[in-house]
Amino acid sequence: MANEPLIDDTLKTELSALYRATDRHYHNLAHIEAMLALAGDYRASLQDPEAVEAAIWFHDAIYDSKAKDNEAKSASLAQEMLAGRAEADRLGRIGAMILATATHQPPLLDGEAAMRDASLFLDMDLSILGAAPDAFDAYERAVRREYGWVEEPMWRAGRGAVLKSFLDRPHLFHTEEFRRRFEPQARLNIARSLAVLQRQP
Question: Is the dihedral of CA 163, 94, 124, 148 positive or negative?
Fold first, then answer.
């Protein structure tokens, strides 16, 4: 178990196929690759970088914009596909990180290092909020396409509520590193997007 990587090439191939589904415009392989790049940037800060990498690979494995249980299904898939590759407590941490993407509040885990890994993982997932304006705008358009079935007035209200809930938080990001790197731009991006959503069509 110790010598076998959590995420090997076979798993990457299987998961990549899920992320390449044609209805994924943002929650696709590019999103996973961007998060993996950030995990590389902060690898020295992670207690269990392989577990974080596994959480990244699995966190959006199941994605249906009409469903409310994507995170739970993705966590279950991780438990199933990673069975035998890690001890129960490590699998539990990976599952908890995936489930936490539903609320973007860190899960309660044993030990400060595990909590910090989870916080960094959640910050990586939301880093797009602090991207350069053109990249953020492309993200907003891609998410809108994933919710193409939602009528415009409902979209404006729903998306507006989500973005406002982020702005109302004392901090968008859980770690100092991500606050410094992404928070100022994230607040500008979200405020700009909210202004567009609140304009009369």
Answer: negative
Give 200's DSSP letter: -
Please report the DSSP string for 23-72 in residue order.
T-SSSSHHHHHHHHHHHHHTGGG-S-HHHHHHHHHHTTSS--TT-S-HHH
CA count, 13 A, side-chain hemisphere, 18: 17
> Distance between CA 141 and CA 147 in Å, rounded?
10
105, 97 Cβ separation under 8 angstroms: no
CB–CB of 111/99 below 8 Å?
Answer: no
Give me the phi and psi of 94, to 5 degrees please. Answer: -60, -45
Please give the structure tokens belonging to residue 92: 């539990």
Buried b (16+ CB within 10 A) or exposed e, 5-43: ebbeeebeeebeebbeeeebbbbbeebbebbbebbeebe
The dihedral through the CA atoms of 153, 154, 157, 158 has a sign that is negative
pLDDT tens sequence across 37-95: 999 999 999 999 999 999 999 999 999 999 999 999 999 999 999 999 999 999 999 99
- Which among 131, 32, 130 has a CA at the least distance from the CA of 74? 32
DSSP labels, 60-122: TSS--TT-S-HHHHHHHHHHHHHBTTB-HHHHHHHHHHHHHTTTT-----SSHHHHHHHHHHH
